């Protein structure tokens, strides 16, 4: 799987022609997205054509579904930059690079992040020393936004540049958690809401109005509950893998998790499969978060119902694990 293009527009055209090939393979689809994003970075670096000092090192990292290798067919942007040294000239260059990459990804078919979690934003484009201070400040502040930023950052995965920077930054989170276990409780409190999806009589609850009336919100009713719960356990145990399934596989190797993680792993794999199979080429980015129940067989609807119920059980398991640790 190779590509070599000199413009974002031709890259987008090739992406649109090729992507449907990966309809039944979530892993290959995410490798394809990685390939596109790496090409965007290459083109962006070529376009800047600024001589850099050999000592200027950097890492461009993706977050969100990209960081977790859980892209669907359509995905928006979530990314950042970390670099050395802490100099005005370097900061100006890498912020310009972040802006060019953001524009390039948009031109290649990845919508801008509505929350501005992009390397074009100085909050997500910093020297390694400033990143260290920022993560420390986020953990000390413990506000809803700074804890949310920690959740976002913990899914980061390097696509270009120095691999070691992100591990170095995540170690700050682990050290703070060991010193102040209540931070895990705070992370849990800010991310454990589950959108109600199963009614009192066992019926699946769909959207009651709007363009997705009669459809189930697969992102917030199913994906996000699993993603958030498993991420918290990953932070607790110092797991550095970024994908939800890889995190669960790592947790299964640890005492106290082996019995719980098996069914949750298969549940999440089923969700990834359904999202790909339900994709329609007319879908917008927002459309990809919903599933039409009529497209599922009776057995699939029952399986989905069980997955949603298990999501609540997983949350209860996480709550017990964190409260036990805090105690």
UniProtKB/TrEMBL annotation:
Occurrences of domain DUF294 (ranges): 182-318
Domain Protein-PII uridylyltransferase N-terminal positions: 27-142
Listed Pfam families: DUF294, DUF294_C
Gene Ontology molecular function, alphabetical: [protein-PII] uridylyltransferase activity
InterPro entries recorded: DUF294_put_nucleoTrafse_sb-bd, GlnD_Uridyltrans_N
Protein name: CBS domain-containing protein
Organism annotation: Cytobacillus firmus (Bacillus firmus)
Organismal lineage: Bacteria, Bacillati, Bacillota, Bacilli, Bacillales
